[in-house]
Write a structure and sequence with these properties.
The complex is a heterodimer. Chain A is mainly alpha-helical. Chain A is built from eleven helices and no strands. Chain B has 14 helices and two strands; from the N terminus they run H-H-E-E-H-H-H-H-H-H-H-H-H-H-H-H. The chains are: A mainly alpha, B mainly alpha. The interface between A and B is large, with 92 and 88 residues.
């Protein structure tokens, strides 16, 4: 007697069409022969060919990847430390300020983070003579700062779920504290550290606003290059670039999702087997 | 400081200092100090030196001029209003589209559900800039999408109102539309999280006791999902109100949003005190909804 929720299903269909029609349209038009980006002029892969021979784009992509790798890695280390600190050390001096500092970058509008970082670097150069020029280093520093708090959020959530009794049990069974840390605590929160890193990596790779404020000559990342192009309007080569990025990222996320999902399921299964063996 | 044995070990070896200290110091130097510089900058005086500001010397140490100009100049107030209206509209539209979608996600078969959830999250991982760009392609005058809408419009309205194409680009309509598009996942996910937890037997009980389906929704489902509505609303409203990329690419330059005003004051007008004052006021505006949010969240956690 259960009624089919026709309205809800059609809203879902509408919503997913809303999500994916613009992206599909962009993909289709990346194969457009015509130079006019919105008028169909036949099938062609010429924009992809011109993309791969464009040294500027390749250099920008390389710079973006470098910044994303370095900033995501440092952000993950700092963010994980902050997550552990907030969950395991519930009382230390300045904890309230600390938890405020960890939340504030999440709600700070990017424009404000951008101009405050730029003013900071300029004033720092005034006061101590560094950084003389903005570019890779300043962008990376800014990216670490605003992506580490995302890592903290993810790690913190996982730490709160994790059972502290396992750590206690390991110590009762004679493990040294550093063994507990490396054999129990870190493996338990590892999925969170991994997804925190992925999050920091994509946030860095995707950022326009903060990068545009903190960069300098020779520091053109891929989003900045796209930004300067799309401000002038829709062009077919950006369609091609966008298609490649969507496909690469989409596949990456899908694979990561499946792998993490499977690891999680195996973990649950192992736990269940261990339980049964003990009964 | 640390209650567990692991914590005590951390503490004794000085590791606790490192684990707390490193991220703490980092955020103090690279987040708090820059922010305090903005606050200090907002009461500085604009000069023609480099950097173009001054505290003291022949200028007043504390100058409130930027703030009085923001409050007296209609341009800034209009920009604040435009931001609030656009962000508010985006939030409401996200709720109207996202709520039935989240509810729908709870009703589909579990096998489908994880795939559909993945599809909700997937756009979030792809480039934000390119998602905005995708709509630039759709909204342009010669695009197939604009053509489709134009045909529909011409079919529905009297002949006199017929148009060649619908002017969508560079309007506040475009800004709201693209904000709904890019922020919709932020609304759906917390809504789904709060709706998924609801006990379906409550619905059945209400139905058995004679409620009509829309009454069940209004009296049972909706009140229980209010935490999700508030969380989703905040996640959409806050970034939308300070948005810079979307209004710059598809917005109306004649009625800018506040993010664009900050960026223009800073980069084009080189008026750092003004940009900083507007930034501080935007933050003050955002503190209010954030407080409301944390109030509700604290209450929700307290009632558990």
């Amino acid at each position: 007697m259960k009624r089919r929720p026709v309205f809800l299903i059609s809203m879902l269909a509408f919503g997913f069409a809303f999500f994916y029609v613009p992206i599909l349209s962009m993909i289709v038009y990346s194969f457009n022969e015509s130079r006019l980006a919105t008028v169909w002029g036949g099938f062609s892969t010429r924009w992809y060919e011109s993309l791969f021979s464009n040294k500027q784009i390749m250099a920008a992509l390389l710079l973006s990847l470098k910044i994303a790798l370095v900033s995501a890695t440092i952000a993950t280390i700092l963010g994980t430390m902050a997550g552990i600190a907030l969950v395991r050390f519930t009382r230390f001096r300045g904890r309230i300020l600390f938890s405020g500092l960890v939340t504030a970058p999440l709600i700070m509008p990017e424009v404000i983070t951008g101009i405050s970082s730029l003013m900071f670097f300029i004033m720092l150069a005034e006061w101590v003579g560094w950084p003389g020029q903005r570019g890779f280093t300043t962008v990376t520093l800014a990216h670490i700062t605003f992506s580490m708090v995302f890592v903290t959020t993810v790690v913190q959530a996982r730490m709160l779920q994790a059972d502290r009794a396992i750590e206690e049990a390991a110590m009762d069974l004679g493990s040294r504290p550093w063994q507990v840390l490396f054999d129990v605590t870190l493996p338990v929160i590892f999925p969170a550290i991994l997804s925190g890193w992925l999050l920091a990596f994509t946030i860095s790779l995707d950022d326009v606003v903060i990068t545009s404020f903190t960069t300098g000559p020779g520091g053109t990342t891929l989003p900045l290059l796209i930004w300067s192009k799309v401000k002038l309007g829709v062009t077919p080569d950006v369609n091609a670039l966008a298609t490649l990025m969507v496909l690469v990222v989409g596949t990456g996320v899908l694979v990561a999702g499946i792998v993490l999902n499977r690891a999680e399921r195996r973990r649950v299964q192992d736990a269940r087997l261990a339980y049964r063996a003990n009964e | 400081m640390a209650e567990t044995r692991l914590g005590r070990w951390f503490d004794r070896k000085g590791w606790a200092g490192l684990v707390i200290g490193a991220p703490y110091l980092w955020l103090l130097v690279l987040f708090l100090v820059p922010f305090l510089i903005v606050v200090a900058m907002s009461v500085a005086t604009k000069t023609s030196t480099a950097p173009p500001i001054s505290w003291g010397g022949e200028y007043p140490v504390l100058s409130w001029e930027s703030y009085t100009r923001v409050l007296s100049d209609g341009l800034y107030l209009r920009a604040f209003l435009t931001s609030l209206v656009n962000a508010g509209l985006a939030m409401v539209l996200c709720l109207l589209i996202g709520y039935p979608m989240a509810l729908g996600l709870c009703r589909v078969a579990p096998a489908w559900r994880s795939i559909l959830l993945m599809l909700v999250i997937l756009p979030f991982w792809t480039s934000f800039l390119l998602r905005v760009y995708a709509w630039m392609g759709l909204m342009g005058r010669n695009s197939w999408f604009n053509g489709l809408l134009t045909d529909a419009w011409n079919l529905l309205v009297p002949m006199d109102w017929a148009v060649k194409s619908i002017p969508m680009m560079n309007t506040n309509f475009a800004v709201v539309l693209v904000m709904v598009y890019t922020y919709l996942p932020f609304m759906i996910l917390p809504l789904y999280a709060s709706l998924e937890r609801l006990d379906p037997t409550l619905d059945e009980a209400a139905l058995d006791l004679g409620s009509r389906p829309h009454q069940v929704f209004l009296d049972v489902t909706l009140p229980q999902s209010i935490p999700g509505i508030i969380a989703g609303g905040m996640l959409v409203f806050i970034p939308a109100a300070g948005e810079l990329v979307i209004p710059t690419l598809v917005g109306d330059a004649a009625s800018p949003m506040i993010g664009r005003v900050i960026s223009d004051e800073f980069a084009s007008a080189r008026d750092w005190p003004m940009a900083s004052a507007v930034a501080v006021m935007l933050l003050l505006l955002m503190v209010v909804p954030t407080m409301v949010y944390s109030h509700f969240q604290a209450r929700a956690e307290g009632s558990k």
